[in-house]
Design goal:
By secondary structure, this protein is an alpha/beta fold. It has helices spanning 35-48, 91-107, 139-151, 176-179, 200-211, 228-233, 262-276, 294-298, 300-309, 317-331, 375-378, 389-394, 419-426, 429-437, 446-462, 470-473, 477-514, and strands at residues 11-21, 27-30, 60-65, 75-80, 83-88, 111-119, 125-131, 156-160, 162-163, 166-167, 183-184, 194-195, 216-220, 283-285, 335-339, 353-356, 370-372, 406-411. The chain is 38% helix and 17% strand.
Length: 515
């Protein structure tokens, strides 16, 4: 009986003769530490298999924790005559063993041979980013993606909650952030108004939902750039108290937080403190990438800040801002994450976990504070011709045998307006990514992964997850060229159009300042 498990376990042996059959008479046992895994299995039986266990037969399913098993988050799974045993190093390990068991049961309709699996993750940090600023995803859609993360044994949900195009967190102290900042006049699709935000109760519910699936949540409030939605609500945050609308176009916006005003820091510290109350996992992503300094160069407040601090270059305002925000979070006992900023970010606190999306560390770099989110391999919003399935599978985050702190795939949503499109973009690439995040390198094989695709796509169907077809995920050469031509035409047009507008604004603003 061949089985196709994704992500591939570290070690799996499979017999040929059936020894276990799942029926409604089966008994399910779980120790006190395995309650999350038991709840997951109960949901699977009820929702996917429509099976209500009576517990009166001779077959037994046993879930338990034993720290002697493997390493953190690892598990063993054994199928013996009339018994299946899942034993985890910890509660997460049992939960991940159940994810493997679900796949086994689905593929052979509950009939299993003797099986022995020993498994544990390659990386402790296995992340998935969802951008809900460009397009708002309703709570049920977020939960569906959290279920998909659990199925793929991912454990960090990076929630990109704010950007130029929308502010998605309800905050009592700053009501205009959602009254104004959560809504934009039109989108890339149909040029229709778009918006939405999560209430505090909805955020608490989603965080709890994630925890029940062994997933920790890392909120991202992006700054000092990517803040037009906040400036639209509170213009004093900008260098010239600019009256802006929430951004509608793609690309980097040149209006950023004014670092010269102390009121900017009062606002940010107030926002951070209120957001932290909703996210108890002790991690926070401050964004920090793509920070054009053109406003700072002309702003009297920023120039005064430079004079007071003895700065000789406007770029020094960036580590100054990041340093103050980081210090505030560290005082709260929070671990800080930030996008790596090659131009301006060399002097930020060494304790900050740097997320690399483009310029990856060199072979001799210290990777202990690096999350690899490689643009060329893990940006799932890009067409399959730009980020091929093979590139996603074969990218190796390790350098000279040294692993980074973690790995993360990203689903940005400038061109992903619906859950259906999100599924098309994410699957089957999330399956490929999961084998880098979980499976040891010596157990990985791209050709074997391709052979598992039919079973994997059937698994996605079983959980009602939209996905690309094999043909869509493996485009031929002509389709690859078509994807790439479309991508670069779209981006070069957007960048050129935006640059012309910005150049005209700089000239106009300089003229105003000189009067």
């Amino acid at each position: 009986m061949p089985f196709s498990i994704i992500p591939q376990p570290a070690s799996m042996t499979v017999g040929e003769t059936p020894v276990f059959r799942l029926t409604k008479l089966c008994n399910l046992h779980a120790d006190d530490e395995s309650v999350l895994a038991k709840a997951e299995l109960d949901r699977f039986f009820a929702d996917t298999l429509a099976l209500d266990l009576l517990g009166t037969g001779k077959e037994h399913l046993t879930l338990s924790v034993d720290p002697a098993v493997s390493k953190p988050e690892g598990y063993t799974l054994r199928v013996e005559p009339t018994r299946v045993t899942v034993t985890g190093h910890d509660a997460s390990g049992v939960f991940y063993g159940v994810q493997t068991l679900k796949q086994l049961l689905l593929q052979e309709e509950g009939i299993l041979p003797a099986i022995e699996i020993e498994d544990a993750p390659q990386y402790g940090y296995r992340g998935f980013l969802l951008d809900v600023s460009r397009y708002f995803f309703a709570p049920d859609a977020v939960k569906q993606l959290l279920d998909a993360m659990a199925l793929h044994k991912l454990n960090r949900f990076h929630w990109h909650l704010t950007d130029d195009h929308g502010w998605r967190i309800e905050l009592d102290g700053y009501p205009l952030l959602t009254q104004i900042g959560a809504w934009r006049a039109y989108t890339n699709f149909g040029r229709t108004p778009h918006g939405g935000f999560y209430t505090k109760d909805e955020i608490r519910d989603i965080v709890q939902y994630a925890h029940e699936r062994c997933i920790q949540v890392i909120p991202e409030v992006d700054s000092p750039g990517h803040v037009v939605s906040a400036i639209a609500a509170y213009p004093f945050l900008s260098c010239f108290d600019r009256d802006l609308n929430v951004a509608t176009n793609s690309g980097v916006q040149h209006d950023i937080l004014c670092v010269g005003k102390e009121s900017t820091f009062d606002f940010m510290f107030g926002v951070l403190d209120e957001v932290l109350e909703l996210f108890p996992d002790g991690m926070f992503h401050i964004g920090g990438d793509e920070v054009p300094t053109m406003r700072w160069e002309h702003c009297p407040h920023c120039q005064k800040r430079m004079e007071d601090e003895g700065f000789t270059d406007v770029g020094q305002l960036y580590p100054y801002y990041i340093g103050r925000v980081t210090a505030h979070l560290k005082e709260k006992g929070v671990r800080v994450f930030a996008w790596y900023n090659a131009q301006l970010g060399e002097k930020i606190d060494a304790a900050v976990i740097r997320e690399h999306w483009d310029v990856l560390p060199g072979d001799d770099a210290d990777l202990s504070h690096v999350v690899d989110a490689d643009f060329h391999s893990y940006y799932f919003d890009l067409p399959y011709g730009m980020v091929p399935l093979k590139a996603c599978y074969t990218h190796d985050p390790a350098k000279n045998g040294t692993q980074p702190f973690g790995v993360e795939c990203c689903l940005w949503t400038e061109y992903v307006p619906t859950m259906e499109k999100a599924g098309y973009c994410a699957f089957p690439r999330l399956g490929a990514f999961s084998e880098t995040a979980w499976t040891p390198p010596d157990a990985k094989n791209y050709d074997a992964f391709l052979r598992k695709l039919p079973a994997y796509l059937a698994l996605l169907d079983a959980f009602s997850l939209p996905h690309a077809t094999r043909k869509q995920a493996l485009p031929g050469l002509l389709r690859k060229w078509g994807y790439q031509a479309w991508f670069w035409k779209r981006n070069l047009h957007a960048l050129g159009w935006k640059k012309n507008l910005d150049d005209r604004h700089v000239a106009k603003q300089s003229s105003v300042d000189s009067r």
